[in-house]
Structure formats: structure tokens, C-alpha cells
Amino acid sequence: MRLLVVEDEVRLATALHRGLSREGFAVDIAADGLAALDAAETTSYDAVVLDIMLPKLSGYEVVRRLRARADWTPVLLLSAKDGEYDQADGLDLGADDYLAKPFSFVVLLARLRALLRRNAGPRPVVLEAGELRLDPGSHEVSLAGSAVVLTTREFTLLEYLVRRPGQVLTKTELLEHVWEAGPDADANVVEVYVGYLRRKLGAEIVQTVRGAGYRLATS
Ligand code: CA
Fold first, then answer.
1. Domain 2-119 listed as CATH 3.40.50.2300
2. Ligand 1 center to residue 32 CA distance, Å?
3. How far is the CA of 44 from the centre of ligand 1 (A)?
């Protein structure tokens, strides 16, 4: 899952980057409203964490412009201004949720996961594909009832595949959503991690579609 964090306070941006990366998200940071709009235009994000008080364009204006250009990426607004007035304003403009500063990282994470679930359509909290079960909250994975231990990055890759069962996903798409790499990054890392998943979950779990990419086996 790739996130855009829009925050001009360097310390908070750094802390969010560190915390969210540790949870397995690929995280890009934008420090003002215009940079946020540019980033959202060139990269497809799974969600945006958006501060309201920003240089150049406010968070409100960023949401308004995203929605005006039919970008429906889920947006979680952050604000230092505590009040229902702000909240109503943001939600009216098309934000999906709102969190007042100061917030706890655990709460931010829970809200983000809720947004990502909502965006992925009606899905159970625990994801299932055949005999595979994974819990995005606890990072627990089991195959035919036996627990499997995955690293954070392996989990993120598997979660991305499981949320799109049967879909062919290109290496570029996987690289973009699972790693923090730019477009010129080495796609071999995708192959390496698909190899790790196959070793832990069985060779047939991820199918190679020659010349196109990978997909999760659906049975
Ligand atoms: Ca700010």
C-alpha cells in the first residue's frame, strides 16, 4: 500500500514516515499543498494523510482540487485546529475522515486501515484467498490453519496480491505500491520477494504470467 503524507512540520513528517514504513507501507512525503497535488497526479496512492494547515495551498483546497479532477483516493485530514467546524468543512469537501492533532500513532493507523478497507470494497477484516488467511491488523498469516511467519515487506506484498485475487499485477505496479522505489528502481526486488513468498507458502501461491506480471492463485 502506497501512502502520500502531506505535512510541513518536518519532525511530524519524519515520525510518520518512520512509523508507517515500519508497518509496511510505502510512504512518500510532500511538504506543501502544490507538491501534494503534483505527487498525486504522477503516482497512484492507496490513501493520502493530509494536514490542513499547509504552505501554498491548504489541505481543504488540496482535497477540493483532487475531487474536482475525479481523484477519489481516500483522504484522512489532520488538523491542529480542534473543532467541529473544521471537521464538517473537510468532510463536505470530500475528505473521508478527520483526526485532530495531537493524535496517537495507533489511532492514525487504525483509521488508515479502516479507510483502505472501505476503499477496497466490502471486505472482511481478515482477508482470505483459498486456504490462505491474513489479518492486516495483527500481520498474522496462516495457510490451511498453520501459522506462517512473514517479514513486514513479505506481508505487504502478499496483502497487495490478496486484495486483488486473480488480477495480473505488473512488476512496476508492485514496485510502486509495495516498495518506496521510484520508477527507475530495480524490478528484480519483486522477483526476489515473490521467491520468498513461494518458499514460505508453496510454489503455486503466486503465478507468473509471462511477459505481464504476477497474480495470486485463486483456488
Ligand atoms: Ca501544518
1. yes
2. 9
3. 23
Residue 74 burial (C-beta neighbours within 10 Å; 0-12, 13-18, 19+):
buried
CA within 13 Å, CB half, 66: 33
Give the CATH number of domain 127-216. 1.10.10.10
Look at residues 170, 154, 138 and name the one whose alpha carbon lies nearest to residue 205: 154
Distance 52 CA to ligand 1 centre (A): 6
- What's the CA-to-centroid distance between 139 and ligand 1, angstroms? 31
Domain with CATH 1.10.10.10 in the chain: 127-216
Cα–Cα dist 45/40, whole Å: 7
pLDDT in tens, 55-106: 999 998 999 899 888 888 999 999 876 655 566 666 777 888 888 888 999 9
What digits encode the pLDDT tens for the residues 180-216? 766 567 878 999 999 999 999 998 999 999 988 999 9
